[in-house]
Amino acid sequence: MPKKTQDNTTPREIPRPAEGEVICVVKKTLGGDHLSVRCFDGVERLARIPGRMKKKVWMREGDVILAAPWDIQSNKCDVVYKYGNDEVRKLIEFGVIDPNILDQLRG
């Protein structure tokens, strides 16, 4: 029996930062599901990987993520989404990310 294929697949929409979210670059993995990240708003934060992403999405230094800073402690945040390389390129094309700032944060 032949497998059915879906021809009507549409590309997923890339999540953009909403109110209370910021794009960050992973600076260092700390273990225990925590990361040190440098955000586009100039703040360095301690990021927590939520349980729904722990074993499914692997993060390393230099990755671009979407994070939601905490209300109580502004130097901590939760990871919302990890962008792939092609998604980062599209965000640069759309003007969401400035490539010069991205190079500075990674370097």
From TrEMBL:
Q: Which CDD domains match?
A: S1_IF1A
Q: Could you tell me the keywords of this UniProt record?
A: Initiation factor, Protein biosynthesis
Q: Which Pfam families does UniProt cross-reference here? A: eIF-1a
S1-like domain: from which residue to which, for each copy? Answer: 10-84
User: Secreted among the record's keywords?
Assistant: no
What domain of life is recorded for the organism?
A: Archaea
GO molecular function terms attached to this record: RNA binding; translation initiation factor activity
The cross-references to InterPro entries, in alphabetical order and at most eight, read: NA-bd_OB-fold (IPR012340), RNA-binding_domain_S1_IF1 (IPR006196), TIF_eIF-1A (IPR001253)
Q: Function of this protein?
A: Seems to be required for maximal rate of protein biosynthesis. Enhances ribosome dissociation into subunits and stabilizes the binding of the initiator Met-tRNA(I) to 40 S ribosomal subunits.
What family does the Swiss-Prot or TrEMBL record give for this protein?
Answer: Belongs to the eIF-1A family.
State the name under which the record lists this protein: Translation initiation factor 1A
Q: State the organism's lineage.
A: Archaea, Thermoproteota, Thermoprotei, Sulfolobales, Sulfolobaceae
Gene this chain is encoded by: eif1a
